[in-house]
Design a protein that fits this description.
- It is a single chain.
- The radius of gyration is 18 Å and the shape is globular.
- The strands form three sheets. Strands 4-5-6-7-8 form a five-stranded mixed beta sheet, with no helix packed on it. A three-stranded parallel beta sheet has the order 1-2-3, covered by helices on one side.
- The protein has three domains: 1-80, no CATH class; 85-185, Metallo-beta-lactamase, Chain A; 198-264, no CATH class.
- The chain starts with a helix and ends with a strand.
- The protein is built from ten helices and ten strands.
- By secondary structure, the chain is of the alpha/beta class.
- The longest helix has 20 residues, at 187-206.
- Bound molecules: zinc ion (ZN).
- Zinc ion (ZN) binds at residues 24, 26, 29, 101-102, 120, 128.
């Protein structure tokens, strides 16, 4: 699917690909690396903080098997350290550490045109899910610190990891700070949001999953079991119902009007 998308006019059509750079190593960002590498023979660069996880192919830390997300194993050619500047496509890109959603994540900033490639650290409406304090005490404080770092940059255009590029950066940051404050006030909300996001991405991959199968499914996958034990203590059917509502909303919002819109049957 990644190769098909890349080959569209909105992608790179038939142009060659010189380099692949990951902002972080979640399945929806690096899951196509192996296929792209095989097709384009281009070097792959990833954040220094992610390299040990990729070396070990740590299915829990990479949120793969732990979340029932998939990615084919690949090799990388170079690592990027925060603070470095790289020239890609005739532009200078400064790599900035952007921990929170992913503790090893980087964003890339071009001061000349004030462009930020934000990965999952900042979207038009929010950012990628964050682990609750009880699971990773670093994640939420790092999320706030990263937003504060981004707020100090002079940004004209954000190219996010999900959704269209946008220029109304100040309101997006405001929404992100509001979400962070709500998360800081309610750890269950953080946990619920993370599970819904994880389920939504699993459904994007599977395309569909019968609602009747959902309780058995979430009982089988580690992240739902672990979070349920720690945070919710619900029967699997009740947790499934709570997540299905949110996942359907998130999934269909993201995939609306596209073929294969996520649904639970
Ligand atoms: Zn991510």
């Amino acid at each position: 699917m990644t190769l098909a998308l890349l080959a569209t006019p909105q992608g790179i059509a038939s142009a060659p690909l010189a380099k692949l750079v990951n902002t972080h190593c979640h399945s929806d960002h690096m899951g196509g690396n192996a296929a792209i590498q095989a097709r384009y023979r281009c070097p792959v660069m990833l954040p220094a903080g992610e390299a040990p996880l990729i070396d070990a192919w740590d299915e829990k830390a990479l949120l793969l098997g732990y979340c029932d997300h998939r990615a084919e194993r690949f090799h990388y050619d170079e690592i990027i350290t925060p603070g470095e500047t790289h020239v890609w496509g005739d532009l200078e890109w400064r790599a900035l550490a952007a921990p929170g959603h992913d503790m090893g994540a980087l964003v890339f900033y071009n001061p000349e045109h004030r462009i930020l490639i934000s990965g999952d650290a900042l979207w038009h409406n929010g950012y990628g899910f964050v682990m609750p304090l009880e699971i990773d005490p670093r994640a939420l404080p790092a999320t706030r610190a990263t937003l504060e770092m981004l707020a100090r940059l002079d940004i004209r255009t954000v190219i996010p990891g999900h959704g269209e590029p946008f220029v109304d950066v100040a309101p997006a940051l405001e929404r992100a700070f509001r979400r962070t404050a709500a998360f800081e006030a309610d750890t269950l909300r953080v946990a619920r949001h993370a599970l819904k996001a994880v389920l939504t991405f699993a459904l994007l991959d599977k395309q569909r999953l019968a609602a009747a199968e959902l309780p058995a499914y979430i009982d089988r996958i580690d992240i739902y079991r672990e979070f349920n034990q720690r945070f919710f203590q619900l029967p699997a059917a009740a947790l499934a119902e709570m997540l299905a509502r949110g996942a359907r909303a998130i999934g269909c919002g993201a995939a609306r009007k596209r073929p294969g819109c996520v649904r639970l049957e």
